[in-house]
Amino acid sequence: MQRITLQKTIFIYLHCKDYCMRIELFKSLTVALIATTLFCVTVHAQSKKNKAKGVSTTDNYSVLKQLADADSARLVEIFKDLHLHPELAFNEKRTSAIAAKELQALGGYEVFTGIGKTGIAAVLKNGDGPIVMYRADMDALPVKETTGLPWASTATMKKEDGSVVPLMHACGHDAHVTWLLGVAKIMLALKDKWHGTLVLVVQPAEEAIGGAVAMVKDGLYDKVPIPDYLFGMHTMPYAVGYLRNRPGYDGAGSTGMEVTFHGIGAHGSAPHLAKDPVIMAASAILDYQAVVSRSISTLNPHVITVGAMEAGTVANIIPDKAVLKITTRWYEEKDRDAMIRGIKRVDSGIAMMNGLPADLYPTEKLYNSVNPLKNDTVMANRLNGALVAAVPGLQLLSPPASMGSEDFPYLIINSKKDYVYDYIHVGVSNKEACAKQSKDGKSSIYGNHNPNFAVDLSAIPYGTIIGSSALLELFK
């Protein structure tokens, strides 16, 4: 989805003759102006609040920077170690053990392990005040790293089916865990500056969209209190010093789908004797995009991506099945339902076209569905104001809502309390590299899940400062 600046939107609105389009543009402008106004009010209120208390944001930053810099060598070594040893969802045994050991070594935290298989929770009680939960995820991806960094991963893993896959922290979860460990130490050192209960969560299996629910079902809240605020941070390929924290919707819903095309196998030299599932699957991959472009309004963000196709063993055998692994992304449930119905129509149509009997029609399976992520507007604006005031040079970005998905909210959305959460995105890319790779110098060309995705080491102490600043604000 292309980014459209506020100025461009106003220009289009003024020159657009299509009535319906003008209405949609007017809505977008209204939301943008309200968000901007709220942000400005929040920054002003934060500044007045600090002045009234005699608090110097510069002094606070100096303390946080001093603590983060002093801990930087330890944190960078932890980060490099985690990056060298990535682990897939629900297999994060080594990562979990390192995080638990570091938290226990700090003292003051009550640490619980083995929640949702490999998850960790740690509680630091510090008098009366709000309960704030800070979550970091820790699983990696089956990606072969090509960064060429000295700490690049060469790890592999043998799956249950016997296949071997490369492993990489291509989404920055190694940095997420490292940030949490750095924040844990700072919050312990600054206990005189806040009061309440801090709950830290190191979560497995975010990439599999299942870790948050697994921890809750395994008794997370038998061990820790339900938070008043849930906070989290994610690496993004922005340059270090940039941050995105969008009030309201900022993450799409996601539904996974697996489609199996059944056929009749044959020798590769005699395709006329086969019902080739590879051809059927290949046709479906293209036809699904007609569902995207012709079945759902172009004004509604939605995506169908086929990320994997599994079929056959050797070149001269036509297999009897082919499997497609699909992710759908959406913000409205009706669009999700329309995509699923469309996928099924395409599958049935292809089966009919290939003359398959009813018992060989494609089979579909849905799995790992999460709803869109919607940041609390008040909390997001409050943190934006506080972070801009507290961290010199920090720049907020305002791109459109992301089509990425997260299970982060599922730590609390089914709890007994009214849930309030905010999930922010922190730039981790090298500034000089971004200046060369993009016209505005704000981002890298290597995004999350790319084999060249890299976290600049300067982002480790910087992210720790951002996380600590946010938590200190929430405890006020």
Structure description:
It is a single chain. α2 packs across α11 (377-390). The strands form five sheets. The chain has an eight-stranded mixed sheet with strand order 1-2-6-3-7-18-8-17, sandwiched between helices. The chain has a four-stranded antiparallel sheet with strand order 12-14-10-15, covered by helices on one side. It folds into three domains: 1-55, no CATH class; 57-251 and 377-474, Zn peptidases (Aminopeptidase); 253-370, Alpha-Beta Plaits (2-Layer Sandwich), CATH 3.30.70. Mean pLDDT is 91; it is low at 1-6 and 50-55. It contains 13 helices and 18 strands. The chain has helices spanning 6-15, 19-53, 57-70, 72-84, 93-106, 173-189, 211-217, 220-223, 277-294, 333-353, 377-390, 431-437, 459-474, and strands spanning 110-115, 119-126, 131-137, 156-158, 164-166, 196-203, 229-239, 242-244, 248-251, 253-262, 266-267, 302-311, 317-318, 321-330, 363-370, 373-375, 395-397, 421-429. A hairpin with a 5-residue loop joins β4 and β5. It has 476 residues and is of the alpha+beta class.
Q: Care to give the gist of this entry?
A:
The protein is α+β, with helices and mostly antiparallel strands.
Topology diagram in text:
Elements: H1 6-15, H2 19-53, H3 57-70, H4 72-84, H5 93-106, E1 110-115, E2 119-126, E3 131-137, E4 156-158, E5 164-166, H6 173-189, E6 196-203, H7 211-217, H8 220-223, E7 229-239, E8 242-244, E9 248-251, E10 253-262, E11 266-267, H9 277-294, E12 302-311, E13 317-318, E14 321-330, H10 333-353, E15 363-370, E16 373-375, H11 377-390, E17 395-397, E18 421-429, H12 431-437, H13 459-474
Parallel strand pairs: 3-6, 3-7, 7-18, 8-17
Antiparallel strand pairs: 1-2, 2-6, 4-5, 8-18, 9-16, 10-14, 10-15, 11-13, 12-14
